Amino acid sequence: MQIANSAFSALPSALTVAIMAGGQSSRMGQDKSFVLFEGRPMIETIIERVTGLGDELIIITNKPDEYAHLGLPLFSDVYPDHGSLGGIYTAVHYASHPYTLVVACDMPWLNRPLLAYMIALKETADIIVPCWNEFPEPMHAIYHKTCLPPIEANLKAKRLKIIRFYDQVSVRYVEPEEIKRFDGDGSSFANINTPQDLRKLED
């Protein structure tokens, strides 16, 4: 059962929200951000779901011209061609606040009460990350600026698996039992990589 309304809702928090709009989208055949989802570009759905959760909203993209019409601050990778880890570094680096909520542009069912619950936990660790199906969801997580040095070290060493640096900082895992209070089936973490994924999720 999903909780439509929550005590953890809507008040802006002193953190940055960063939408990750990088990636090659090679399996989709076009930029996932602009794939139509329920009749409009998916990036617009993501923006709507996170607006107001923090008091700064930014987009990480290496194609800023394509996103300029959205009227949000745009930042390109500090370390180009370093995958999602490079995108997280860029988001946390440019964020105006110590904490940054990172979300991917291809997760159209982001659950606002769950995100707000995570934000309420932000001061308990350097990373707040949900675990679903026994794995952390690092592209649906909150990172403190203390993560920057270990991320940068991994980027320079070309160790690009995101969770590899987690043991160098403090981590608060949001367990499935907590997640199910807001999102009973984990749809928050469903992402769209292919046209087949899109058709399946819209059925």
What does this entry look like structurally?
This protein is α/β, with parallel strands linked by helices and 203 residues long. The protein has a single domain (13-202), classed as Spore Coat Polysaccharide Biosynthesis Protein SpsA, Chain A (Alpha-Beta Complex), CATH 3.90.550. It is built from 7 helices and 10 strands. It has helices spanning 42-50, 64-67, 83-94, 112-120, 148-156, 176-179, 195-202, and strands at residues 13-20, 36-37, 40-41, 54-60, 74-75, 99-104, 127-132, 135-136, 140-144, 171-174. Strands 1, 4, 5, 6, 7, 8, 9 and 10 form an 8-stranded mixed sheet that branches. It has a two-stranded antiparallel ribbon with strand order 2-3. Strand 2 and strand 3 (40-41) form a beta hairpin. The longest helix is centred in the middle third of the chain and has 12 residues, at 83-94. The model is unreliable at 1-10 and 25-29 (pLDDT under 50).
- The succession of helices and strands, N to C, reads EEEHEHEHEHEEEHEHH
| Number of extended strands | 10
Determine the structural class based on helices, strands and strand pairing: alpha/beta
Largest β sheet strand count, sense and barrel closure: 8 strands, mixed
What is the structure about, briefly put?
The protein is an alpha/beta fold and 203 residues long. The protein contains seven helices and ten strands.
Question: What is the topology?
Answer:
Blueprint: E1 13-20, E2 36-37, E3 40-41, H1 42-50, E4 54-60, H2 64-67, E5 74-75, H3 83-94, E6 99-104, H4 112-120, E7 127-132, E8 135-136, E9 140-144, H5 148-156, E10 171-174, H6 176-179, H7 195-202
Parallel strand pairs: 1-4, 1-6, 4-5, 7-10
Antiparallel strand pairs: 2-3, 6-9, 7-8, 7-9
